[in-house]
Amino acid sequence: MKKRTMEYHLDGLIALLLFGVFAACLMAVLFTGANAYRRLTFRNNVFYENRTCAQYVAVKVRQVQDAHAIEIEDFGEGDALVFPDGNYVTRVYYYDGYLMELYSEKNSALGPQAGEKVMEAGGLSFSLEDGMLFITITDQEGETEELMLSLYGEGEVAV
């Protein structure tokens, strides 16, 4: 009688041990999957923000009737891309952690804080050389992406 009770306890202990090993393996797989998902989501968000910022600036350049009229001036926390439109200008620039856009009169006294926030960014700089527009975009983590636009012909822009 005692031998049979001992066998039942041993069978129950083995079943409980196997269940514990199964539960531990299941938790390990779940935590690994959740960590991988978190890393992939973060990376995709960073790439999305950089691509969106670059495409936003490229589309603004494409919308200009005379691409050769595009200027770069000091505005905000660095350079501003200036798109003339008659007596008005549109400025795309970086200010206070955001890519900003300001539509105003040419000689307006509005400062960079008056613009509309487009999206978060870490920095933005422009340079114009021989019909080529070089754009450097920095995200919040400090990673940079460079975009080069060729301004050629009237109203035509190639990426």
TrEMBL record:
Pfam families: DUF4860. This is DUF4860 domain-containing protein. InterPro entries: DUF4860 (IPR032340). It comes from Parablautia muri.
